[in-house]
Amino acid sequence: MSNRIDQLFAGKKTGVLNIYCTAGFPELNDTLPVMKSLQQHGADMIELGMPFSDPLADGPVIQDSSTRAIKNGMSLKVLFEQLKDFRQQIHLPVLLMGYLNPVLLYGIENFCKKCAEVGVDGVILPDLPMDEYETEYKPVFEQYNLHLIFLVTPETTEDRIRKIDTVSKGFIYAVSSSSTTGKDKDMGHQQAYFERLNALQLTNPVLIGFGIKDKATFEAAASHSNGGIIGTAFIRAIENTTNLDTSIKEFIAGVKHN
Amino acid sequence: MKIADSTFGSKYHVDEKGFYGRFGGAYIPEMLFPNVDELQRNYLKILKDPAFQQEFDDLLRDYVGRPSPLYFAKRLSEKYKAQIYLKREDLNHTGAHKVNNTIGQILLAKRLGKTRIIAETGAGQHGVATATVCALMGLECVVYMGSIDIQRQAPNVARMKMLGATVVPATSGSQTLKDACNEAIRDWINNPVNTHYILGTAAGPHPYPDMVTRFQSVISEEIKKQLLEKTGKANPDYVMACIGGGSNAAGAYYHFLDEPDVKLIAIEAGGKGVHSGHSAATTQLGKLGIIHASKTLLMQTDDGQITEPYSISAGLDYPGIGPLHAHLYETGRATFLNATDEEALQAAYELTRLEGIIPALESSHALAKLAQVAFKPNDVVVVCLSGRGDKDMETYIRNLPGNTGGNV
């Protein structure tokens, strides 16, 4: 059974643009309109945030978007309801990103089953330990053809990166610097790290995330990998918008063109 | 003292993977993996090094003032018809048990070559204890504290600043201990190489629950020795302690965990009543989940969002509980009770008038449940008096019955 993430990377090796947006943000029912605009204006992949009250790996912008989404009434139950028929309109690969606690409470198997039912392709759960995934959950994710994407950072050792490469499916999420999301660290300093990653010749494609916000940073990331992931800058671009579609169109144009 | 040896294999101690039964572990994002892995690989080796133990012992004795007395509370004993002893952690330097752990962790941080220290704090006791040891060792110190707690614990904020620490308000979420902890973890993610995070309670990712428990285990080690000297008995019949994250309780229980005759009683913060919607009684209101990288019991919504707890005491205002305690609760090894704000206040006024000791609001929760346990007259009961009440004077005075100071 083929997965949309694999199909994407089979056809597109460079400049893959993955955009993160918190589900139920800015308003509860914006989840689908945001996805439609992202697809229409040129994103290659969509990462939907499952909002959590205590997102440890995220900075204030994404945390605030989560808080707002939760206040709007977003939950896993509501999200799966919103995604019920989304495959009639969206053909891009879609990932769900979030923290383990709400997923555990929902039930891992139940969660995977729902993802498969609605047509989600992959999941990012930064606080799910790789060992526990391998020993307890991997068969369930595989049964539902759901790719679990792991992160690597500049501090991750080569041995561990290689191990992550064997466990991860779809692609590897390379965090550009040791930071929470939305921090402005100089990407130039990550040059050596990107080159090191490149030289490892990993089995999985690599997308670089954290600190990517515009054309220059996206191109820098894309030149060392298969593409980049933008979250915080996108949330900023739509948090106070009066016209969602226009803001998304302009944002993506700004990243892809000048 | 001797830092407790490895006790893998005991039913109530951490296993090789960092679990107590089904609780514990290290549910950390990859960004924290190197820091936590470094600690996991090194902490037992460092703790068992005789030179480390010597330095730890010397500081606990000469700087903290240990051993802390085990005081027979005569008038309290008469009132509750049992032999009640107070373990006087309130007499430690900086006024609470917290300093046992910060001394241990600062020595560990130095051995790991760290130059910058971060910490979270609720009531401010752990923040003060961390700022203190950083001043002692000349290390940079940043303390995260919820904005609401900064307001309600002003004297401790002033102490931390005078000690040279930077106090950073946590403005997200409920703006209390949970959020201070989130901000400290985020700081650690952003500063993975030079920084050690001195976590203040027996919670968080493995090895923190075990490491903090071992540093605090000096409390029960001393209780055992002092009790034998005073009564000829090897063990007490009861050990009672308050629980937020659970570090003073973990320390007070440690050497009695495998002594089934010793009844362990944990007292959580009931707030305005367990079912009032304003409570921090985690075992009564919580479900299995993950908080601050530990799988444990925590207060959460049906959708898995962590809820905002409530207690009059900033130190107990936490929606989770350390994994050791979740295990003690589930196995029935410890009995969990809870005390309301009002009961804790009354217990504080009572101890003050009966024994001339003003306890911390946190410790008062433990004292409040003396009335609820059916003791026999010869039962030896040890209550961990985890801290002193100086920081709570404003609350005590404000709530004094009639506010006249007369008829308490």
Automatic annotation (TrEMBL), chain A:
Pfam families linked to this entry: Trp_syntA
Record GO terms (molecular function): tryptophan synthase activity
Membrane-spanning intervals of the chain: none
Keyword terms of this UniProt record: Amino-acid biosynthesis, Aromatic amino acid biosynthesis, Lyase, Tryptophan biosynthesis
Active site: E47 (proton acceptor), D58 (proton acceptor)
Enzyme Commission (EC) number: 4.2.1.20
Cited HAMAP family: Trp_synth_alpha
Function of the protein: The alpha subunit is responsible for the aldol cleavage of indoleglycerol phosphate to indole and glyceraldehyde 3-phosphate.
Assembly information from the UniProt record: Tetramer of two alpha and two beta chains.
NCBIfam families registered for this protein in UniProt: trpA
Protein name: Tryptophan synthase alpha chain
Gene: trpA
Automatic annotation (TrEMBL), chain B:
Record's keyword annotation contains Calcium: no
Pathway: Amino-acid biosynthesis; L-tryptophan biosynthesis; L-tryptophan from chorismate: step 5/5
Superkingdom of the source species: Bacteria
Lineage: Bacteria, Pseudomonadati, Bacteroidota, Chitinophagia, Chitinophagales
Function statement: The beta subunit is responsible for the synthesis of L-tryptophan from indole and L-serine.
In-chain residues carrying the UniProt-annotated modification N6-(pyridoxal phosphate)lysine: K98
Protein name listed in UniProt: Tryptophan synthase beta chain
HAMAP family per the UniProt record, alphabetical: Trp_synth_beta (MF_00133)
Gene: trpB
Domain Tryptophan synthase beta chain-like PALP residues, every copy: 65-387
NCBIfam families per the UniProt record, alphabetical: trpB (TIGR00263)
